[in-house]
């Protein structure tokens, strides 16, 4: 083991950093922190870095690894972050701990799965006052799939409402881990942190790999830098990465030369090499964004690997929407921005889309409504774009009369009713943990959303575990917000896809003066078409600006009009100049005005403000 102390001048910081270069994998531990949202993952990560001396006091701040403005404003983790820590254990040896802090919200589960693939163990953080939540269970299942060793950690022990014995029983009954092995800590107060670090050394396995074999490195994450190009975050499985090495990206079939190697301490710190089992970043002058594929295998050009690493399970989008620039000239900027953002967030997909009302744009596939909001905000903030977003929809499967099956991503592309034989919608299996005080209100909500009960049991005298099957369309928009409102934030929710089932679904079209607005079209259950159509018409009536001609707002299913509202025309008083005289003169002027309004209504353009799309999107929240 060799300890090198050297100066590193970063763009902002100039300080001492200790860089650990290990030739022995036994002194390396790669681990992630997983938990339900708001259970203290980021606070625990701060505490671990503080005890290991990774944070400088003058630069210290809460949730240090949450670097994006959106993360700090919303108080959630969106991107998984990595940091290398140095910890001297009780045996006197200095260990290299590679930490990955992960998101807790279900919409960012792909970030969690990628981080777990690069580690051998996890800290399972549970709030000592709230207990095991739905996303806690989901993350445990992901960790078990990756053969992780789990260390349960009870956080927030400083709270008066902390109930460690009850929580240990929940961990034993729901997860199957021994509650006696759970560590009791307060990340905010900094108590019990050294015991967590010692447990990481004692209980988690060291990485397995052949340091002398040909290079195999897993591409875990990437992002774009305006000056350096594409930066790659890798986990070395076999072999070693050195500077000036020519690497071959197997999926992209491209060769690049490694110009710089570094680690995060948590500040970017250059090193000479990345050895077997280590995690760090490399800069290799990758200028083409499309050459970078998350989950790709990096190997040496001169001595390539014969097989690629398994990579990651493909991410399946569940919510789709269209995105358009408000200015048609920004389309190329939007395309470049999406390519750069996709480099950093591989969990969404996009393809070209067009609209009669909005012009050229892109169709996005995302993991949920929060994911959609975050992607939109990042595009607007990081790339200075002004965007219009259409109502989200899920993927439907349609069997045509000729027997062929098609996937419907965009409601505007739905075939006519006489072409459709049957239509299937995606269903999910939802897991909810609800305090007994709110069980009745949640059951009512689930019934309203067409939920079918699988099971309902009380895991403790005050908490109920509900398992329901529901259509994804009922969940993808405002279900999570409504659930939180009903339960004052105390309920937790998670879901898994559960196949497709046939449903009585119709295309709800919105027409303005007889012209369909494709961006406002949606697929809805037949029994709710009138209710939603009426709500959209009323909302648009209050939003659309008045014109010199009346605007008819209609909601239709096929050729049947379900609801109608009319925006009255602005009227010019053409008879104001007539005073006295015969009434026929006034009638002539009014008839002339009437004819002009007819022509104007026929050829006039109705500009739909961006606010209209946003308000329709929020209907029901």
UniProtKB/TrEMBL annotation:
EC number(s) for this protein?
3.6.5.n1
Q: What class of enzyme is it?
A: hydrolase
Question: Which reactions is this enzyme annotated as catalysing?
Answer: GTP + H2O = GDP + phosphate + H(+)
Alphabetized SUPFAM superfamilies for the sequence: EF-G C-terminal domain-like, P-loop containing nucleoside triphosphate hydrolases, Translation proteins
Keyword Cell membrane assigned to the entry: answer is yes
Q: Which UniProt keywords apply?
A: Cell membrane, Elongation factor, GTP-binding, Hydrolase, Membrane, Nucleotide-binding, Protein biosynthesis
Q: For binding GTP, which residues are annotated in this chain's numbering?
A: 38-43, 155-158
What membrane topology does the UniProt entry give? Peripheral membrane protein
The principal location of this protein is: membrane
Tr-type G domain location: 26-208
Q: Gene3D superfamilies in the record, alphabetically? A: 3.30.70.240, Elongation factor 4, C-terminal domain (3.30.70.2570), Elongation Factor G (Translational Gtpase), domain 3 (3.30.70.870), P-loop containing nucleotide triphosphate hydrolases (3.40.50.300), Translation factors (2.40.30.10)
State the family it belongs to.
Answer: Belongs to the GTP-binding elongation factor family. LepA subfamily. Belongs to the TRAFAC class translation factor GTPase superfamily. Classic translation factor GTPase family. LepA subfamily.
Record-given protein name: Elongation factor 4
Specify the species: Holospora curviuscula
């Amino acid at each position: 083991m060799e300890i090198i102390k050297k100066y590193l001048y970063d763009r902002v910081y100039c300080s001492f950093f200790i860089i650990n270069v290990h030739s022995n994998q036994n002194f390396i531990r790669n681990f992630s922190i997983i938990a339900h949202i708001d259970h203290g993952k980021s606070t625990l990560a701060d505490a671990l870095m503080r005890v290991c001396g990774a944070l400088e006091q003058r630069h210290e701040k809460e949730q240090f690894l949450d670097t994006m403005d959106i993360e700090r404003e919303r108080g959630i983790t969106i991107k998984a972050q990595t940091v290398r820590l140095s910890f001297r254990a009780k045996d006197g040896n200095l260990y290299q701990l590679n930490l990955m802090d992960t998101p807790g919200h279900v919409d960012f589960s792909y970030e969690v799965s990628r981080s777990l693939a690069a580690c051998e163990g996890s800290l399972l953080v549970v709030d000592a006052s709230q207990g095991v939540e739905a996303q806690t269970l989901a993350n445990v299942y992901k960790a078990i799939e990756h053969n992780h060793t789990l260390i349960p950690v009870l956080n927030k022990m400083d709270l008066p409402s902390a109930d460690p014995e009850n929580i240990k029983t929940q961990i034993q009954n729901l997860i199957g881990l021994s509650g006696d092995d759970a560590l009791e800590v307060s990340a905010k107060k900094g108590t019990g942190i050294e015991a967590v670090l010692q447990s990481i050394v004692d209980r988690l396995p060291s990485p397995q790999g052949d340091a002398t074999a040909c290079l195999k490195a897993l591409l875990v994450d990437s992002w774009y830098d305006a000056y350096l190009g594409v930066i790659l975050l890798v986990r070395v499985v076999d072999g070693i990465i050195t500077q000036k090495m020519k690497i071959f990206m197997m999926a992209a079939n491209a060769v690049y030369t490694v110009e710089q190697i570094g680690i995060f301490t948590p500040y970017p710190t250059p090193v000479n090499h990345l050895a077997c089992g280590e995690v760090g970043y490399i800069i290799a002058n990758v200028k083409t964004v499309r050459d970078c594929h998350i989950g790709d295998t990096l190997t040496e050009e001169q001595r390539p690997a014969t097989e690629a690493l398994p990579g990651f399970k493909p991410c399946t989008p569940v919510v789709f929407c269209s995105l358009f620039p408000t200015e048609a000239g920004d389309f190329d900027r939007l395309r470049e921005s999406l390519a750069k953002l996709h480099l950093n967030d591989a969990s969404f997909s996009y393809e070209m889309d067009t609209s009669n009302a909005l012009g050229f744009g892109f169709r996005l596939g995302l993991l949920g409504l929060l994911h959609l909001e975050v992607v939109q905000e990042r595009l607007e903030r990081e790339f200075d774009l002004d965007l219009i977003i259409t109502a989200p929809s899920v993927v439907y499967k349609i069997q045509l009369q000729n027997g062929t099956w098609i996937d419907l991503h965009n409601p505007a592309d739905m075939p006519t009713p006489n072409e459709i034989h049957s239509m299937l919608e995606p269903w999910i299996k939802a897991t909810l943990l609800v305090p007994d005080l709110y069980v009745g209100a949640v059951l009512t909500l689930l019934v309203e959303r067409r939920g079918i009960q699988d099971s309902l049991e009380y895991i403790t005298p005050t908490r109920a575990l509900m398992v329901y099957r529901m259509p994804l369309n009922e969940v993808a928009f405002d279900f999570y917000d409504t659930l939180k409102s009903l339960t004052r934030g105390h309920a937790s929710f998670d879901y898994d896809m559960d196949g497709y089932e046939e449903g009585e679904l119709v295309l709800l079209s919105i027409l303005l003066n007889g012209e369909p607005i494709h961006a406002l079209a949606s697929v809805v259950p037949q029994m709710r078409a009138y209710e939603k159509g009426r709500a959209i018409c009323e909302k648009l009536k209050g939003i659309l600006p008045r014109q010199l001609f009346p605007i008819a707002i209609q909601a239709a299913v096929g050729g049947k009009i379900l609801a109608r509202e009319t925006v009255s025309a602005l009227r010019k008083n053409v008879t104001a100049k007539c005073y006295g005289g015969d009434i026929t003169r006034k009638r002539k002027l009014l008839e002339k005005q009437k004819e002009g309004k007819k022509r104007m209504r026929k050829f006039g353009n109705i500009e739909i403000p961006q606010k209209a799309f946003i308000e329709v999107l929020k209907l029901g929240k």
